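tool_call predict_complex ligand=histidyl-adenosine monophosphate
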Amino acid sequence: MIKRPKGTLDILPEDVAKWRFVQDKFRDICRRFDYKEIRTPVFEYTELFQRGVGDTTDVVQKEMYTFSDKGDRSITLRPEGTAGAARAFLEDGIYAKSPINKLYYDITCYRHEKPQAGRLREFHQLGIEAYGAKGPGIDAEIISLAALFLKELSVKNITININSIGCPVCRKAYNEKLREYLSAYKDELCETCLGRLEKNPLRVLDCKSPICGKIGEGAPRLIDYICDECSNHFEGVKSSLTDLGIEYNIDPSIVRGLDYYTKTVFEIKANSAIGAQNTVCGGGRYDGLVEIIGGDPTPGIGFAMGIERLLMVMEEENAPLPEENGPDIFIAHMGEAAEKEAFKIAHELRAKGISVSSELLGRSVKAQMKYADKIGAEYSVVLGDNEIETGKANVKNMKTGEQTELALSGLSEFLLK
Ligand code: HAM
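tool_result ok
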C-alpha cells in the first residue's frame, strides 16, 4: 500500500467542518478589519525565499522543498506566505493602487522539518500582511486582530509575547556585541551556526540545536541596543495595545526565525501545552522586505497562524467545534417505480437548495432507515408503490420521530420551511 508522505495529513470528511469553521471565522475577522484576500502560487522561484526569508535562516538552509523544473529553473514550494505576498504586491502593482494595502491568505506551506505533534512538512497557515503603514497603530491593529480571532474561537489560555528587534542601524551595533559573545563558544556551536557567526549572528539565537539554544540564553539582548526611533515605536505599540485592553508580555528572547523582521515581533503561545509546538501565531514588522526583493522601501507587517496547531489547542481547551451535518432528508425506496420517483424527487429538491441523500445500494427499507439515522439525516421519507399511487407520503423527523403526512409535491416547501 502506498502511504502518504511523512509529515503530511489527510483531512478527513468528518473533520472538514472544523477546518471550515476556523477558516470561515478568519475570513470574517479579516472582513471586519478590512483585509482583502490574496492567492499566490504554491511554488516560487527559489531566489525569492533566499533573498526574502534570508539564506542564513534554518528555513532556507535546511527546510525548503527545492527542485529544478524541466526548464532547469530552481523552484521551491513556499515555506511561508510573506515572501510570495510581497512579490505579488510588487509584481502586480498592488502598491500603486492604494497608499495602504491590507491582505490576508489561507494557504498550505512546506518545510522539511522533523515531524512531530504540531510540526508537519505540509501545514496550513492563516496569515495577514499590511503594507504602507509606518506608525505603531498597525502593529497594535494586527495583534488585536489575532487576539480577537482566538477569542472568538474560544481559545482563552494564551500569552501574547512581544519584543522589538530594531532596525538595520541598531542591529549593526548589536551584531558586534553578539559576535563578541558568541566567539567565546566557537568550539561548541553547531557547524551551521559557525557559518552564521560572521554573516548573521542573530540566527544563532533561534537555532534548533539544544547546545546553541543554551548558549543563546546568555547572549546580550537586542532590546537593550535599539535606537531611539525603534524604542519610540515600541512604546507606541505598547500603549496602543494597552488602550485596546490587550494583555501582553515583553519577551526579549523573541528574535523570530526569518530574516526580514525589523522593530516589532510577536508570538502567541497556547498555555495548554501541546509539547514544544505551542506557538500558534508568529509575526512582526518587516520594513525592508519589499526593498530587498526589488521595490521601493515600504513598511510592512503581518503574522501567520498554523491551522493544525490552532485546532490542536482548540481541542485541548474543549473549545466548541462543529460536526459535519447530515443531509436535510434521506429518501428511502422500495420497488422499481419508487426508485425512479425517488431519483426524480431528489433531483428536484437538490435544485431547490435542499441536501438529499437517496438509497443507491438496493438495501432493505429497515437497513435504509438505519443508514439514514447513522448519517444524521434530519428527515426521512419512504417511497413504495402505495406512495407513488396516492402521491402522498409520511415524512419523519428523525430526532423527534414525529411523522407528517404530505403530498409529495409539497415536500420541498415543507423542508424549506
Ligand atoms: P512562522 O513563525 O515561521 O512565521 O510560522 C507561523 C506559524 O505557522 C507558526 O506559529 C505555526 O503555528 C505555524 N507553523 C510553522 N511551521 C510549522 C510546521 N512545520 N508545522 C505546523 N505548523 C507550523 C511565518 O511563517 C511568517 N511568514 C509569519 C509572518 C507573516 N510574519 C509576517 N507576516
